[in-house]
Amino acid sequence: MIDNFSDRLVKNPKIVNANPELREWHTVTYHTRMPGLKWGRTLWVAMKAGGPFQYTGLEMRDAHWDLKISPEVFDEVTQELINAMDDFKVPEREKAEVLAAFGAEKVTAGSQPGAVNWRRWRRAGRDPDTGLNPGTAERAAKMVT
Ligand code: HEM
Prior knowledge:
The protein has a single domain (2-113), classed as Globin-like (Orthogonal Bundle), CATH 1.10.490. Helices cover 66% and strands 0% of the residues. With 145 residues, the protein is mainly α. The protein is built from 9 helices and no strands. The site of protoporphyrin IX containing FE has 23 residues, from helix 3, helix 4 and helix 5. Protoporphyrin IX containing FE (HEM) is lined by residues 9, 15, 22, 25, 29, 33, 37, 40-41, 44, 57-58, 60, 63-64, 67, 69, 73-74, 77, 102, 105, 109.
């Protein structure tokens, strides 16, 4: 199902052409990163379905921030998830559970106006370039000299 879903996104012009970042990923980057992404998505759904497999990858905000996903693109991806589940005749109850878990991430996976700037909030006070806490770089420099 995740295979079908992921391959559908690469063929959907509303997703591929939504912005330069998504176009780059779905026309070039996917050649090398799609297998790992399919594995990460499978673990995420398995975890949301109650395990026992656990998702251990990046947080949704961090995995998607640079892709500048709009709410409209998120909705288009959700429709492709529905199409993929229908292809595999996923029962209505399980389908509703997956869609509820997926929908709950709409704010965290998106990074357009209205998305909570959680990633930047968490980095408040950190060096914008290194992401390190104040003084960490200096302490690290002292350790190597
Ligand atoms: C609830 C919604 C979503 C879930 C659960 C999800 C899940 C994931 C996971 C598990 C990863 C891999 C993270 C890692 O590398 O550790 C990922 C990355 C990615 N997701 Fe999503 N995703 C969601 C929404 C979206 C949407 C709406 C798009 C828009 C097309 C999208 C496109 C991508 C892309 C292109 C990557 C690969 C980034 C890379 O190469 O590192 N995702 N997603």
